């Protein structure tokens, strides 16, 4: 489980393309400190498992499903990536609950700089708009952000200087892909309300059965 608070801007140092997967080697002195085989590290918002760890670099295998559902397949040696270790129990939840399970890939549509921040417009793929609300949370390339405006097929976010300087969102240009993960709470609420609506008249929900 992550919070969407990026710890460092890392770098891809090597990519090995396999038959149905890819193996990435990434550099990140902060996230590799104390890392061991089997640990999780979020890379541009995608939860990956550490296969090997050597100094300030680690390798991770990315299966075809992940390559198809995220923008990781576009990474090449030299690409910058957002890195975050899982949150520890008892730590402050600085962003929001992030699973590291990308829902889809959006596209940067526009950037509007101002003196102290920048407004970025991102496309919303089909099926995701219902989970995105004004002032709600969304994860973009692993960064927990607040939605400024929610449209039918887009949303906007406001980026402060720190986010621009310390994450990939500072260098993404119109046309570039970004990984999107919507608030998981919204998806659970939709599923529960759907089940309630489909239940036969007079049928008790699981919560009601427990209360009895």
Write the layout of secondary structure elements.
Elements: E1 8-17, E2 21-27, E3 40-43, E4 46-54, E5 57-63, H1 64-69, E6 80-84, E7 104-113, E8 118-123, E9 137-140, E10 143-150, E11 154-159, H2 161-166, E12 177-182, H3 184-198, H4 206-211
What are the main properties of this structure?
single chain; 212 residues; alpha+beta; six-stranded antiparallel barrel; 16% helix; Lumazine-bd_dom; ATP_synth_asu-like_sf; transferase
Q: Can you describe this structure?
A:
Its EC number is 2.5.1.9. Keywords: Repeat, Riboflavin biosynthesis, Transferase. Pathway: Cofactor biosynthesis; riboflavin biosynthesis; riboflavin from 2-hydroxy-3-oxobutyl phosphate and 5-amino-6-(D-ribitylamino)uracil: step 2/2. Lumazine-binding repeats lie at residues 1-96, 97-193. 16% of the residues lie in helices and 39% in strands. The chain contains four helices and twelve strands. The protein has a six-stranded antiparallel β-barrel with strand order 1-2-5-4-3-6. It has a six-stranded antiparallel β-barrel with strand order 7-8-11-10-9-12.
